[in-house]
Amino acid sequence: MRKLPIEEYHRQLGKEFIEIADCSVVAFYSSITQEFDKAQSQPVLVDRSFAGVVRMSGKDAGGLLHRLTTNEMRNLQPGQGVVNIFTNAKGRIVDVVEMLRRKDDYLLITSPGRAITLVQWIEKYTFIEDVRGEDDTSTYALFSIFGKIPSGFAGWSLGDVQPHHFLETRLDGVDVLLQRTGGIAPDGYNILVDSKSAMPVWNFLCAHAEPIGFSTYDTLRIHAGIPAAGSEITEEQNPHEINLLPYINFEKGCYIGQEVVARLDTYDKVQQQLVGLEFDDQRVPSLKTTLWAGEEEAGKTTSAVFSPSRKKAIALALVRKKFATNSHRLMARNDDVSLSCAVVALPIV
């Protein structure tokens, strides 16, 4: 188990933990319902140090990363970032990352537990290039602020920082990287800080935002329709299926999996789509529960929770395209349990 930078602090507080990608993370601070409600009206704070961080350096790093990913990133300037997708030769997803260009290197914020896998994937395609990839996950703590963030929050002066771009600045006397998020994370900000300085930064942020646990964060993620590694983001899925088209540049040249990704778009060959589901009652289906339209198999659930706002179970699911229209009725069946649900638009508001 990898110990997170402020884990001991939370253990001393007696918090309940759950395991995410070989890390123990706080499940919740008060209750999921209370924390969910707070996120609707004020800033909230979550420790996302379970995510991976890869540092790429060397004079050829930018060129190699461009050849391995779906989005245009050759013109990134220091302080800019982009969401990028690594795909394999079959056009399936290796990982989805936030790629940040610094002066002398790139930082890639990866899915939980995927940093070393991504380093090895990049090494597989590194031949004579001057490129070095390092799993720097343990070097950093990653905190995220989102929810209702007022203007001038915490005294920050962010100007016109665009989504995925960042500033290298100081919080309470500590050097941090402050990045605007959105798209593959709730709209807000990531704060990357040296793991040795994590505690004072956490305390500073707690003075301005309400901390929430991973269980609440995951509930908000599902409401937002954001895919997550191990649930929607797997090597069984392609970017089209899980609504990642904004992070594919169809004008760029070849990259690993490009022909397959382009063909799926050109010939409309995508067979299934990520959708939201609302169930008729509070019972939450187990993951990978099969969905049926009458006697015809329609898809499977990928993430599911009880919604504090809807007072019912909701889910994300990969559903065959002909059943992916809003209000289409489906039945989730698992062993002796049958749960009726309807397809709903994402995000689930």
Q: Please tally the helical runs, counting DSSP H or I stretches of 4 or more residues.
A: 7
Strand order of the largest sheet: 10-11-12-9-3-13
Q: Residue ranges: pLDDT <50 for 5 or more in a row? A: none
Give me the CATH fold name of the largest domain: Gyrase A, domain 2
End-to-end Cα distance, whole Å, is 36 Å
Reconstruct the topology from this structure.
Layout: H1 7-12, E1 17-20, E2 23-26, H2 32-39, E3 43-47, E4 52-57, H3 61-68, E5 81-87, E6 93-101, E7 105-110, H4 115-124, E8 132-135, E9 140-147, E10 166-171, E11 174-180, E12 188-194, H5 198-206, E13 210-211, H6 214-224, H7 258-266, E14 272-279, E15 290-293, E16 296-307, E17 312-320, E18 329-334, E19 337-344
Parallel strand pairs: 3-13
Antiparallel strand pairs: 1-2, 3-9, 4-7, 4-8, 5-6, 6-7, 9-12, 10-11, 11-12, 14-17, 14-19, 15-16, 15-18, 16-17, 18-19
